[in-house]
Every structure is written in structure tokens, then in C-alpha cells.
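Example record for the data management plan.
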Amino acid sequence: MIFCVEDDAGIRDLMIYTLNASGFRAVGFENAKEFYTALADTVPELIMLDIMLPGEDGISILKRLKADARTADIPVIMATAKGNEYDKVIGLDLGADDYLAKPFGMMEMASRVRAVLRRSGRAAEKQLIRVGGLEMNLGEHIVTADGIRVQLTLKEFELLRTFITNPGRAFTREQLLSSVWCEDFLGETRTVDVHVGTLRQKLGSCGKYIRTVRGVGYKLEV
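Corresponding structural encoding:
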């Protein structure tokens, strides 16, 4: 998961579209408040962070990230105004892994993201995950249950990815809608129930790993 903190809706939407089309999972946030709320639930693989933000700016956010043991190792790519050397130097000195000068090309952005993930060692991290009789290859989008390959839709795959990378953690239906269908999805929480039902069915005996948490939502537990 990649978090994009950018207040310009047009740029933010284009960044998210490009990253998702490049094989990543990305969600966007307009300001620090939205970003911190999401960060409390999910630790991303990488953060794209604009410096010029309303309210708390990117430099302040970066300082907080690097001061917190939970988030200190997350790679950060800063977006700076073209020609603003001071912001670049400050960001790199504070621990940013790379920077992009606005306006930047979307393909360049995706290339920088891949390069930073490779350098940080996160690109190959947890590509193959096994839980009980369930195996998920995140890189190749392959799922097997009790040794049998299972064909999942994209949303089912992303739903299972959310569960299997956070074993034991209970998710509300609203959190799953935001994570899997993205924050702008206008559907109902019933959508989650339907997809969880079909996912359980496709996983056969491994479907019982996805447990209903009464009054909350769902979690994966063996």
C-alpha cells in the first residue's frame, strides 16, 4: 500500500491512478488529519508526501514520521516546488528517501517509487504468505487453498490481501470499503458482506479462517 498526501485533487487522483495501473495499491489524502487517521489503521510500504499542504505541512509530517518507531522506517518520497532547493535539502536531511520536483511526470513518479522500494528492501517483502492451508503470492497474484489454485476477482484478492497481511486484526466494514474499494466508493457495507461470502466459498475449508467479529466486522484467524 502506498499513501499519497497531496492537496490538489487532480494531481492526487492522477498519482493514484498511475500507481494502481503500475501494479501498486495506492490511496490518497488531502491533508495531515486524513493521513494520520489512515496511518493509525495501516502502515504503508511507502509514502508520497507533498511539502505544501494546508494546515500541517509535509516537513512537519516527515519529522513526526521519523520520530515514531512505528513509522520511522517507511520510505518517503517528497514532492517539492520546482527549483526550491531549500525544501529538498531539508527533506533529505530529515530522512526522506527521494524527492520529485513539481510538475513531474507520472511515469517518472512510478519509476522513483519502484527504485525506492528496491533500495529499502520492501519490494520483495512478504510476497509469499502462508496461513494454515492458505497460500498467497502477492507478486504473482496467485492464491491456493489446501494446494488447489483458487481464481479470485480483483476485489476478492484485495480483500484477502487485507486480511492475510493483518492476521488477527478485526476490520469494520467501513474500513474494508475504504481499503479495498478506496475512500471515494459510494457503495454500502452490504457489498463487503457479499464479497466475504463469495471469498469464503471459493476458499473451501480455508474459508473458515475469515471469521465474523460480532458488532465489528471480520478478521482472519487460524
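Summary line stored alongside the record: Residues 128-220 form a domain with the Arc Repressor Mutant, subunit A fold (CATH 1.10.10.10).
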